[in-house]
Amino acid sequence: MVRMVPVSRLQNVRNVVVYQVEFVQMVTESVALFNIRGPEKTNHQCIYDQFIVSGGNPVPTICGSNADNHIYIDAGLGQTNPVTLTFVTSGNSFARSWKVRVSQIRCNTIYRAEEGCLQYFTGISGQIKSFNYDPVTGLQLSNQDYSICIRMERNFCGIQYMTCPVDDKGDSTSMTQMTRSHAFTLTGNTQAMQIASMTGAACQTDWLTIPCASNTGRLPTTMNTCIDRICGGTFNAENQNLNTSSVISTVKPFRLIFHTDSIEAPNDVGNRGFCLNYIQQPCTTKLR
Ligand SMILES: [Ca+2]
Known about the structure:
Shape: globular
CATH class of the largest domain: Mainly Beta
Strand content: 35-45%
Number of strands: 19
Domain CUB: 115-281
InterPro entries: CUB_metazoa, Sperma_CUB_dom_sf
Number of domains: 2
Organism: Melipona bicolor
Bound molecules: calcium ion
Structural class: mainly beta
Number of helices: 0
CATH architecture of the largest domain: Sandwich
Order of helices and strands: EEEEEEEEEEEEEEEEEEE
Distance between the termini: 53 Å
Protein name: CUB domain-containing protein
Helix content: under 10%
């Protein structure tokens, strides 16, 4: 079944260049309102249900559970560029729910996403999750290739990333406490055991790009060089490390790139994607 929602410009609103599309989770109910069937379990491709955006800048197809996540769509400069949001569902054996809030953002606002950013975060701290991330049941989506941007707040010169707490939501009452973190599992067979970090050219299939990233908070075990890609099963800017680390980047603007290819099995199994908390670092601090 295909449900298409054309997104129209509001009458009498000029200079709209970006649509913000939020996948809303209702506060008063514990119902996740972007819950469509997830990817197939071998190569993590969205072959059953799909959420497709057409007409704007290229947006990767997503599926699965994405409550409280969002995307930005570049609407272009013309007055008539149609943007269509499409939910494709396949089969009737899955309880689906979704609720999508679309906001139109004028060109000249400070909360307008920078060009080319599929995701955009403001504020000195926040949480970034890959699509369909869930530490227990999620699967990293294949065929992703997009930029995540964080607005540089005034007087902040760097940004530090760390994985979300082991129980994911920082909820001490959570019943899903786990012995190891799935908050950063991008490549390798991470289903049965923890896989070490991989960096730079070792990341050839799926990776998160953090420009000139290095560990922070403790002395490096190797030369304090910086790297641009992290993958594997542990979040660390040093290659082949089994300890999760906080990672800092001072490259401006603050941007991440998430790339996945179309293949998982047999080498990559059980990867959940990533959940990172970020904190911007003030210019007054010695950052490295
Ligand atoms: Ca892959």
